[in-house]
Amino acid sequence: MHHANHFYGHAQVLARYCDLGELDAPPRMLGYLQHGWNIGDGLAPGTPYVEGAPIFVWSEQTRRRAWSLGRRNVTVVGAPWIYLLALEPEAPDAPPREGTVWYPFHGWEGQEVKGDHRRLIATIKDVEEGPVTVCLYWAEFQTRRIRRLYERAGFRVICHGYRGHWWRQTNPDFLLGQLTELRKHKRVASNRVSSALFYGLAAGCESAVYGDPMVLHAEDPTFGGVARIRRQWPELHGTHVDHAVARAIADDELGTAYLTSPASLRRLFGWEHLHTPAGAGR
Q1: Which residues pair with 55 in a beta bridge?
Q2: Domain with CATH 3.40.50 in the chain
Q3: Most buried by CB count within 10 Å: which residue of 75, 101, 202, 261?
């Protein structure tokens, strides 16, 4: 249904988990899939919504918030990330991890981030002891001025790629590439709590949130913004945090306990009519 269901290759990951085999295009879901961590009802602010359509959210707390806002047809399925982890277990002989992968807060096609990247770089250098990989969102990565600041600071600078938009240019391996990168590092860090932070924790990284959170142009204050996040999740903020506590929060926010069977997902998403290879199914 909604094109955001396919951001980051989410539909492809879930179709693969559902044993649907090779498809020419990712299947359309019968409803709206939460495409990123947020502190609202699972949908991005301003998302056009067909009243009564199913909404598939990552966590029980998101379902409760959606209910409080009048959404009724809401089901917890967990984040696509937990399905990817089920499909791609870490190799027992994986090389030792080192350093930190750092995700500066980013904007998107409709909103830019304003902040002092030089100041953030200085803060990162003061805190991190090992090698640092900085992962920029595609828009910031393409902005040579920003990318060069981090490169000149001596950081390895990468980009996971384009998330896709309006069913075009979707990278079906976006999350797989991100998982591969996270598993190289001991720590994941950012200047704001984000999907990437929780992904890193679920992938076995220690975590940190510090530095100037920066400002998103015309940021929607409906759900409380950065101030609320800092109040509600103080345990995640700091240069060094309690890993066990942070990992438990990540499991809650990603809905790890709600990992659903392929057959149940196919039924929820309206995929029962799609071809399943002989002998597939779990």
Answers
A1: 32, 74
A2: 100-254
A3: 101
